[in-house]
Amino acid sequence: MRSLRIWALAALLNLPLQGQVTPPAPQTARQALLEMFFSKTPDTFVKHLPDATRRALIHKTDSPAASLALPFSISMLTQQLGGRGGQLQTFDAGPTLLSVEDPKKQDKFEIKVERDDLQGEENEIELSFRVSHNGETQALPVLPRLILSMKQENNIWKLNEATLAVHVPLSDPVFLKGLQKMQNDSNESSAVASVRTLFTAETAYAAAYPERGYTCKLHELGGVGKGQPTAQSAMLIDTALTQGQRGNYQFAIAGCDGAPANRFRVTAAPLDSDSGMRAFCMDESGVLRVAADGSPRTCLSSGQVLK
After folding, report:
1. Pair 42, 151 in one domain
2. Comparing C-alpha atoms, which of 172, 184, 139 is closest to residue 274?
3. CB under 8 Å to 50, separation ≥6 — which residues?
């Protein structure tokens, strides 16, 4: 009986504890930032603006949508990203703040958290940006950093200051390698377009002057002026391509044998053989080939078909 009374008393003492609800944890500065920028409710964005900013930019007769504050809301950006078929996720903990992924294109955009420093009622969050394709990080011409300073007002985290910094690590070999690849890709794309232009010009030239067929003289494909095109100045390509050089590539046409000539070979070779750029070539068949060693001879003899 005594043990039963003790058990009943213990149960009675525990009743209030069982009815209590654990209060939610206070909102962190990072959670406030996500709420501010990614909430679909405009009032939530305004909630995390400093009181001084609200008084200066939002008049009593204005709605939040009509204020000057709303255009800064990143929620507009997220709606655009999500509307393009990207899968958008936000994270209130961990190294990633935001991720937008397009599974079809294998593209991914991320906002990374480089630093999250909490000091009392102030919190500084530093963000960086990363773009990847097929799981490989893509080089950017500059590395932007966004520093957001949060400060508590009346127990609410407010965005007190935003600083955009541009980081260019000119001595970083990884950054320089990525930047060089970016430049090489641009030069290669331009070279491919020029090779296709020369192929189209050759086809048009042979059709216009069947007694000559194809021509191996770049200047005959070019020409400027107000006169009529001729076999010596067909006006089919621009002056820069007529000179045989464009975008760090050297262009040449050969193999125009016979009368009329029924064959030709266009080649595009990098001016700098140590650049790491590829060579491209095409003949009258219209098949574009590529050589990884940058040699036009390799391209013509054993080049891979460019897809």
Report:
1. yes
2. 184
3. 151, 153, 158, 159, 160
